[in-house]
Write a structure and sequence with these properties.
Elements: E1 13-18, H1 26-37, E2 44-48, H2 55-67, E3 71-76, H3 80-87, E4 93-94, H4 96-101, E5 106-110, E6 113-117, H5 120-131, H6 136-140, E7 144-147, H7 151-163, E8 173-177, H8 180-193, E9 199-203, H9 207-215, E10 222-225, E11 249-252, H10 260-272, E12 275-277, H11 280-295, H12 303-314
Parallel strand pairs: 1-2, 1-3, 4-6, 7-8, 7-10, 8-9, 10-11, 11-12
Antiparallel strand pairs: 3-5, 5-6
Helix pairs in contact: 2-3, 5-7, 5-11
Length: 317
């Protein structure tokens, strides 16, 4: 639904603020998770906003959730930065990551207080650790390439800079983006938190520039599509002529859509010895961390409990 269709909830209701929310697997997954987690009869409803929507739209969404007693909270995707920029003054509490990154992925309530959390540094880190081999960076001297300088890319680099020991740093992080402002903002934030990791920022006005960056990475390096291309917009940040790093890893942050980058990586997997990961585990961590915050429940990040939630989600896929 759109902002104009918002009506007071007649029972506790959880929201998903995105672009094409009805297409997300969460619409089928959440009711099953809610039953398993004992959340009661709590539906999930999508709120669709346009890319970089008007500030008034974001403020109306936040105002509705804040003032409606039946609205318990929301997960925010795509609009994490724009929503907070528009409605920051409406929040009673922002967690340190939200303050640092200038974005929120979780809206929750504690009593009358409206709270915003940036969960992506946690969820992206958990998701990366789930498939990148232990001691990979120390043992290989590999690099990390982040295609796109938006919120997800900033979150993963923040996790590494603030949570990882020196021996678990990539040899270098290289970030590319189509426009200069996001690179400049990332540089500004990194300047306050980078413990000494070498970072290169590349203005990539065409996929061919990204091809050149990826082609110059050390063997065993990790390449991440953090652009949203393939889900929120068609295409890939790379061309089909790209040469992925030998023995490397390719990570598509998305799990639905055309996923052109994912298909390019899979096509190169055999010839380049490439491990390919999509965004499914990231999806599960992203949602479960927000659900835990909104509903005040303990949800494991690994082990049998997490495996059960993954199994439930996979049954709808």
């Amino acid at each position: 639904m759109t902002v104009s269709e918002l009506v007071p909830a007649d029972r506790p209701t959880f929201y998903f603020i995105g672009v094409t929310t009805e297409k997300s697997s969460i619409m089928k997954v959440f009711p099953k998770w809610a039953e398993y987690l004992g959340l009661g009869d709590t539906p999930i409803k999508g709120i669709d906003c346009k890319h970089h929507d008007d500030a008034a739209v974001y403020r109306e969404v936040v105002r509705f959730i804040k003032n409606d007693p039946g609205s318990v909270g929301a997960l925010v995707t795509t609009h994490k930065i724009d929503l907070l920029n528009a409605a920051k003054s409406m929040f009673d509490y922002l967690d340190p990551y939200a303050e640092l990154l200038g974005e929120i992925s979780s809206i929750s309530k504690r009593g009358s207080a409206l709270r915003g959390h940036a969960k992506d540094p946690i969820t992206s880190g958990l998701s990366m650790e789930a498939f990148v081999p232990e001691n990979h960076w120390r043992d290989t001297g590999a690099e990390l390439c982040l295609l796109g300088a938006g919120g997800s890319s900033l979150a993963l680099s923040t996790y590494i800079m603030k949570q990882k020991r020196r021996e678990a740093w990539p040899a270098r992080i290289v970030v590319t983006n189509r426009s200069e402002p996001r690179l400049a903002e990332m540089k500004r934030i990194h300047a306050s938190i980078n413990p000494g990791i070498k970072v290169d920022y590349v203005l990539a006005t065409s996929p061919e520039v990204n091809d050149s960056v990826v082609g110059g990475l050390k063997p065993r390096s990790l390449v991440v599509n953090a652009t949203g291309l393939g889900k929120d917009a068609p295409g890939s940040p790379l061309t089909d002529a790209v040469s992925f790093p030998e023995g490397g890893l390719a990570w598509e942050f998305n799990y639905r859509g055309e996923l052109v980058f994912l298909n390019q990586a899979r096509a190169a997997a055999k010839s380049r010895g490439l491990y390919v990961e999509d965004g499914w585990v990231y999806f599960i961590h992203g949602w479960t961390r927000v659900i835990a915050e909104v509903f005040g429940v303990e949800i494991p990040t690994s082990g049998p409990g997490f495996d059960k939630l993954s199994e439930i989600a996979a049954s709808t896929r």
